[in-house]
Structures are given as structure tokens and as C-alpha cells.
Amino acid sequence: ILQNVSTKKGQAFHFGSTYDTYDADQAWFTTTFQTFYKHVVSENGCKWDATEPTQGVSDLTECLATQSFATSNGNTFRGHNTFWHEQTPTWLPGSFTASQLTGTIIPQHVQQEIQGLGSSVTSWDVVNEVVGDGVSNGMTPLQCVQNKGDWPTVTADGSGQPLVTDLSFIYAAFNTAFTYAGASTRLAVNDYNTGGQDAKTACVISLIQNIQENTNIPYDRLAIGFQSHLMASAGNFYTKQELATTFSTLAALGVNAMITEMDIEINSDNNANLRYQAAIWGDYIDACLYASNCNEFINWDPRDDLSWRGTAAAATLFDSNGNPKPAAYEVAARL
Ligand code: XIL
Question: Where is the GH10 domain (predicted)?
Fold first, then answer.
């Protein structure tokens, strides 16, 4: 019934969702990724706990299996993620100094993953959620990252501060990613509550500029991933115009924009809420389709009963029976 969104003004447009081999209802996944979603990201299989469960020993079994699923269904594949303070392996938190992390542990992990998945990966979230929620306008990139309260889950001394005395751990991750990624793989800073004209979005933009200045990675290889975990009733989403303004700021720099984890909690899936959800989805996909620099769009979890937001949130494009909701038709109508 639904066509896939696969081309955009002559460019490849990658529109897809999450997948892992242990998800329920694999038959539905196969059908839906062959016909509607055409781009795959592993929901959990490429995270650090899954890919380096023993220090120094790379285990890409699930990550590679999700990439194989993509390839065998004619889909493209994006990587999520090489560095995050959550879902870390048990050997990591609290065990290493900042210089060990920056000099060895982080680059080794980034290399293992990016080399292992190969050059066809469209983009990698090189660092995930490194900017704080309490940031304000005018903060430097370092202040934006220091504002994040979660570094104790990674660093050795429990204060978290050694890792963020400077941004060298981020430069190390990006330099390694650039060395081992394919020639057109985009390298992203990925974060939530971003996309408009606000302090956190200003932080991710200044951070990507700072990364460029300190690594010399060309701007057209860099990207900002806007996760877009939204809540309709709380008004927790951006307008099409706000998104367009942000995307064009990045286009002026030559940086890519991507929507990487979109879902919209509506709580009750009555008709009014479903229409509201569809309208927001339409605005986001329009903003991306009409921007010259937005070529990837991922829905986080492909159907309501499999959503990390919970079934009751009704946050995805397909209902718990796997049937398309109004938002799915809204996307399909953009073809
Ligand atoms: C979530 C997954 O969907 C869950 O299955 C898992 O238990 C926790 O992580 N931001 C991210 C994603 O970058 O990796 C998170 O995914 C959702 C929030």
C-alpha cells in the first residue's frame, strides 16, 4: 500500500527505522523494510556494550547481522553509535583515566566498529548525547559538553571532570572515525532536544564547527543528528520553519543535517491525536526533504508495541498490529 521514499531531487534519500535480529515478528520486519522503510539502524546491536563486551575484543555479531538484514532487503545502513555514556560495557565505567580513554580506549573502539562495518555505512553517530541540558546561549563548545552531568559513568575518578578538561576525547573519536570510514560516510554529533533556535541547538552547531577546526575533517563529511524524540501534548517539537532555519544554517557551513531517532508520544491513540501526530511528522519530513543537506531520516522503532517509549505512547508510524497509522500515510504522501 505504501511506497518507499527513496529519491529526493536526484539524491539518495535514506528513510528508515530501527531493527535488531531479536525483535519480535521478524516476518513483519522483512515485509515492511522491503516495501516502506529502506534504511536500517540497529536499535541496540552496535552500542558499546554489545560490540566490545570484553575489553579489546571486538564482537560485531549483532551489529553485522543488522547490516546484513539491510543488505539482503535492498536497504542502506547507518551506524549508531561509537561513543555514548549509556549502554557501556561493564569493564568500562570508572576504570580508566581521561588520558587512557582518549589515547587508547575510545580510538580503539571507534576503529573496531567503523572498520568492521565497512565503507558502505551512510553515516555514523560518532559521539552520542555529549551536550548538557542546562546549557545557555553563548557557552563555548567545552562548556556545552562540561554541562553534561553524565561523565561519571565513563571516567575513572567518579567526578567525570578529567574526561572533559578539554574536548580531546571527541577529537580522538572523530579523527579515528575519519581514518577508517568510507569516503562518503557522514560523521555525526547526535543529540536530543535539538533542531530549533535554542541554546542546546546552538551548542551542537558550535561543537561541529569546533570539531572541524581541530580535526580538519571537511565540513561535507560532518553531520548533526537531530534525534527528535517528541511529545505532542507537551508541545515538545519544533515547527517546520524552525527546523528549516537550523538546516539552512548548517547548509551554509556545508554540514549535513539528519533526523536520526524520530518518535512522537501521543498517549491516547484517538483520531484527533493520530491526526496531530501525522501533521507533526509531515512537517519534519518536509523540512528534511526541502533542505539541500538533509538526506537521512530514521524513525526510532518501527511500530508501537516495539517502541522504547512504551506501547501506550503510540509514538511510531505503525500500530501494534503492524498496520500503518495516519502518520505513515503522511510520510507516503510526500513522494
Ligand atoms: C534506546 C533503545 O531504544 C532501547 O531499546 C534501550 O533499552 C535504550 O536505548 N537515545 C539514543 C538511543 O541515542 O540509543 C536510545 O535507544 C534512545 C535515546
Answer: 1-334
Decide the pairing of beta strands 7-8 and 294-299. unpaired
Taking the mean position of all CA atoms in its chain, how far away is CA 130?
12
Instruction: Read off the C-alpha cell for 255.
Output: 554540514
pLDDT of amino acid 158: 57
Q: DSSP alpha helices (H): ranges in the chain?
A: 26-35, 48-51, 61-72, 98-100, 106-117, 141-146, 168-180, 199-215, 240-253, 271-290, 326-332
Q: Which three cell numbers stand for residue 71?
A: 543488505
Neighbours of 62 (CB within 10 A): 18
Coil/strand/helix, residue 125: strand
Strands 11-12 and 76-80: unpaired
pLDDT of residue 160: 59
The residue whose CB lies within 8 Å of the most ligand 1 atoms, and thus the one to mutate among 51, 308, 316, is 308
For the Cβ of 128 lying below 6 angstroms from any atom of ligand 1, the answer is yes
Cβ within 8 Å of residue 56, ≥6 positions away: 108
Domains within the chain, CATH numbers bracketed: 7-332 (3.20.20.80)
* Element housing 262 (H / E): strand 256-265
Q: How many of the other CB atoms lie within 10 Å of CB of 89?
A: 17
Task: Please give the distance, rounded to the nearest whole angstrom, from the Cα atom of residue 87 to the centre of ligand 1.
Answer: 9
d(CA 125, CA 138): 25
List, for residues 39-64, the tens digit of each pLDDT value: 999 999 999 999 999 999 999 999 99
Q: What is the ipTM of this complex?
A: 0.99
Contact call for residues 19 and 77 (beta carbons, < 8 A)? no
- Decide whether any atom of ligand 1 lies within 6 Å of the 260 Cβ: no
Matching residue, cell 571532570:
161
219 Cβ inside 6 Å of ligand 1: no
**Is the Cβ atom of 20 under 6 angstroms away from ligand 1?**
no
